[in-house]
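Question (not urgent): is this output format expected?
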Amino acid sequence: MTRDKRTLAVHAGTRRSQYSEMSEAIFMTQGFVYESAEAAEARFEQAGEDEFIYARYGNPTVRMFEERIAALEGAEDGFATASGMAAVHGALAAMTQAGDHVVAARALFGSCLYVLEEVLACFGVQVTLVDGLDLDAWAQAITPNTKLVFFESISNPTLEVIDIAAVAKLAHAAGALVVVDNVFSTPVYSNAIPLGADVVIYSATKHIDGQGRGLGGVILGSKEIIRSIVEPFMKHTGGAMSPFNAWMMVKSLETLDLRVRAQVATATELAGLLEQRGDLARVIYPGLPSHPQFALTQAQMGAGGTVLAIDVGSKVRAFSMINALEIMLISNNLGDSKSIITHPATTTHQRLPQDQKDLLGIMPGLLRLSIGLESAKDLNSDLQAALDVAFLSD
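Got this back:
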């Protein structure tokens, strides 16, 4: 029987001990005991479906999270990692080698650009960056030597929405794999695998945890990719998720659907109200009809996500607005149950050269708003009052 995502988020992958506990158990162990030397030898030769060797390779609690998030995403398998960037680096490094070619969207989180341009390039991987919205640019950049393409389904922080199906078609025609960082789409609204993604990456630190407690990431895909390519790399380089963090993520998945849908509803309402002001240089939200990829967003996700961006025109106004807020918190995270505001040009994307910031649209007045679970009425009052202060600061 096919289960709904909300049901899978509560029950998939559950492992109960002999005590038949209701809440999933935390197996806080780094190693495992064997009944005999022969049993140890047999397990090292070929571990069974529910047999473990060492926590860096796998752990019952971590496996519960991997199976649950894989079921939710519609993937065959997953490998949980210590952080979102461990997932990005692990997937890209495991799937490439010297001489390979990677084509990636230019609009990426700064650490993702570092992995591509500094880490992979140092090991002989050729990287080409393109305008992710330009299908002709993708077509020209992808060659028979291209091993994979990589992009954020919704870019950070300017919220460009990339056509997964169209890029996947181009990549697959050349024999390349498609790796999608899907954080802004969330597992709730994700259709990345049906649209052609071979590998989906999440920073579980964001919406999956959603409560600001722990780091985590996950790489999702076919069993062949995860167990034959990703797992060997990850277990030898040490980027595994801790059992305690895996337990937190398992419990958070139970409320993921409820939290994200509430956040999206509020984000949509706030984006519409902010657009009505008329004094903002830009209001960027994929769920607004004014967004250039609105139709694609509706077809690909059916909703605009939990994050929006506004441009108040200058750094002075941006800082003035941030400092006038009473409810929204200043932080560089997103996807939390608490609403967060970020000034990308001086924080998350600070180290990008100015010409790259200009190219990506990361202007001095740009602010990224991650909408939480507070009252939409209270958030709107907070934002409107802070904006009034900002426009008096000139």
